[in-house]
Amino acid sequence: MDILEKFIAELSVLKNTQNLDFALNTQEFQNPSAHDTHFDAHAQELQTLILQTQNLLASLELLDTKNAQILARLQAKVDSKLKIAVIGQFSSGKSTFLNALLGEEFLPSGIIPLTSKVCEIGYGKHLCLEILYKDGSNAFESLEVLEQISPQENEKIASYKVFAPLEILKEMSFFDTPGFNSQNQNDTDTTNALLEEVDGVIWLSLIDNVGKLSEKEILNTHIKKYNTKALCVLNQKDRLKNESEVQVSLEYAKSAFSGIFSEIIAISAKDALESKRAQDCKKQAQKFADSNMQSILDFINNALIPLRENARKESILNALKILLLDSVTSLRGKNSALCNYETFLDSQIALFASQNPLAKKAQEECLRVYNLADSLLDSLSRAIFAGIRKEKIEFLRDKKNSFGIKKSFFIAKEVSILPKDTILRSFDSQSEFFREAKKITFKELEKLFINAFLECERAHNERLQENLGQDLMDFMKNFSAQTSHIFLHAQTKLSTKTSALETLLHTNFSNAISFVCAELDSLIWRGVRTFSKNEKFPLFEPSLENIRELLNRAFCFEEFLQKLFLQNNIASESLSYLTHEIEAVKQAQNLAEKKCKNRLKARKILAHIKILQNT
User: Fold this and answer.
1) Which of 201, 100, 117 is nearest to 154 (CA)?
2) What is the pLDDT of residues 301-349, one digit of tens each?
3) Which DSSP helix (H) or strand (E) runs through 391?
4) Helix, strand, or coil (residue 66)
5) Alpha carbon distance, N-terminus to C-terminus of the chain
6) Using DSSP, how many helices (H) and how many strands (E) does the chain show?
7) What backbone phi and psi angles, to 5 degrees, belong to 405?
8) SS3 state at 257
9) Cα gap 235→207, rounded to integer Å
10) Greater confidence, 6 or 501?
């Protein structure tokens, strides 16, 4: 059953059962059921395309809240009823016209002058009024309230909605508008905003007052751009003497309103309402035919509904294509961001590469510390050597004379003596040597690495401030967390090694000097003892090389050589560890795989867009 048939059925129910038989046999109300089937097929096709798009985005993990909301709005658009705005100048009889069009006198006369608000007329099981307030609240009242609302109360109201149990309103809604009011720009703005949304526009004008200059200006300014969906209705044709005068007025209106409307129709809302009151079926039919209201219904059926279907289909398809293209753009943006991120990771890894300035500075710092330690041990060697003094010691010797008689005598030899107590006091914690040893630290080397870590962290934080998309942000946060752990581990390892070397110089300083002095003293007196027994064994004469060798042993200087001077020193070890571990984190991100997946997703979306284009 199409909207016209439903409309007649409703009229019949409101009147009597005899009228129902008359309406079903009236030629004016043909049954265009094929049109409804066509309409349903279009709606079904659009619903299928929306569902396919939703399923595609869901399968590609791209159905976020925003996309879901867009698809829900498009689905609601498919299911939405036809919307028709009724506009006219002051006293053009809009309320009467709507009562006649809907076949029921339920709207108060002059509703717009009373309210100056948009009033939607839609389907409801019971006749009532819903008042929608500007604060978001609402209230349901009887229609009589429209004539009782004070100007002060009306200021608090955003719009009205009238519900009526008429079948025609199941298919479409009508909007009674404030119109274009030069004294109230809000009325004009509200009406213009509504015109953008509706599927049809009916401009109501009085037939004997049509074509005034002020009316032309309004139509050219506000209505002309909607000419394909706009109908001009010349009301009160019953006031003219005959059909000839009606045609003259129509021709004049067509000339005056050229290019503004899709069609111009003369009607009598009064005759249409009187046809309801007539008791005689033939008189009722004649009155309704004279009103020419059927032409308006035909325009809705034959012009607005197909136009709405085409516009809705085009609008929904375009919206789906835009949504999908945005997804493709987003995927390409993600891939571009992934490429940039990959380059960024490479730059982070490069910070610790062997040819990087950081590596060079770290090597130089290791060498500097090594040289300081080497120089300190040289100074200690010279100081200890300078503290050795010479003393003459007599050694008892036996010698036989020519007669074979053994004779004892003493010989004096200069012996190197190490005054341990004196030397040890010169190397205590208050000595210049100890202060020089304390100055040899690895703070600068550790600072180089700490600054490098902070630079990485700063670079990450800067990137995180950019609009990179949630996926990439998650990747970067994950990378940042893992590299922070790697940096901390590397820093701990480096600090452990440098602390061990500093301990050898600082904490071990007194023990090392004591060891060297004890060893030297032992070697000297061992030489004395062996020489006293047999002069063939020479006395021990300490040299700088001897002392330095003992200092090397005491301070474990071999560790300094390996950890600071050789190629695989602590700086190289730390840099190698960092590059290896960060590279491993980068590989674990599977960036190449993610980019490949995004490209495949984009191809699937583009294939679906082609389907939409061919629909």
Assistant:
1) 117
2) 999 988 888 888 888 999 999 999 999 998 888 888 788 778 878 887 8
3) strand 389-400
4) helix
5) 28
6) 25, 11
7) -95, 130
8) coil
9) 6
10) 501
Q: Are 187 and 116 in contact (CB under 8 A)?
A: yes
Distance CA 234, CA 224 (A): 17
H or E stretch at 377: helix 357-387
Residue with tokens 């809604």: 173
**What would you report as the CA-atom Rg of the chain, rounded to the nearest whole angstrom?**
51
Cα–Cα distance for residue pair 460/249, rounded to 1 Å: 76
Predicted local distance difference test score (pLDDT) of residue 407: 79
H or E segment to which residue 173 belongs:
strand 172-176
Residue 608, pLDDT above cutoff 80: yes
Cβ atoms of 518 and 417 closer than 8 Å: no
Q: Which amino acid is at 572?
A: S
Structure letter (DSSP) for residue 539: P
- Find the Cα–Cα–Cα–Cα dihedral 127, 132, 137, 143, rounded to 10°: -30
> Scanning the structure block, which residue is given the tokens 């059926």?
301
Please identify which residue in the block is written with the tokens 């004008």: 205
Residue 407 Ramachandran class (φ > 0 left, ψ -120 to 50 alpha, else beta) = beta
Q: What is the pLDDT of residues 183-241, one digit of tens each?
A: 678 888 888 888 988 999 999 998 888 878 788 888 999 999 999 999 999 999 988 88
What is the average per-residue pLDDT within 375-394? 92
Angle, CA 280 vertex, CA 278 and CA 282 arms, to 5°:
105
Q: Tell me the pLDDT band of 90, cut-offs 50, 70 and 90.
A: low
Please report, as a single letter, which amino acid is at residue 388: I
Six token digits for residue 159: 């719009």
The answer to whether residues 519 and 492 touch, using CB atoms and an 8 Å cutoff, is no
How far apart CA 415 and CA 517 sit, in angstroms, is 16
Angle at 278 (CA atoms; ends 276, 283), nearest 5 degrees: 110
CA separation for the pair 46, 320 (Å, rounded): 10
Q: How many Cα atoms occupy the beta-carbon half-sphere of 552 within 13 Å? A: 12
Which residues are bridge partners to 140 per DSSP? Answer: 130
**Distance (Å, whole) CA 421 – CA 418:** 9
Burial 378-401 (b: 16+ CB within 10 A, else e): eebbebbbebbeeeeeebeeeeee
The single residue listed with the structure tokens 């996309």 is 67
Instruction: Judge whether residue 470 has pLDDT over 70.
Output: no
Beta-carbon contacts of 425 under 8 Å, excluding residues fewer than 6 positions away, are none
User: Contact, 47 vs 313, CB < 8 A?
Assistant: no
Distance CA 465, CA 481 (A): 16
Which residue is listed with tokens 């000595």? Answer: 431
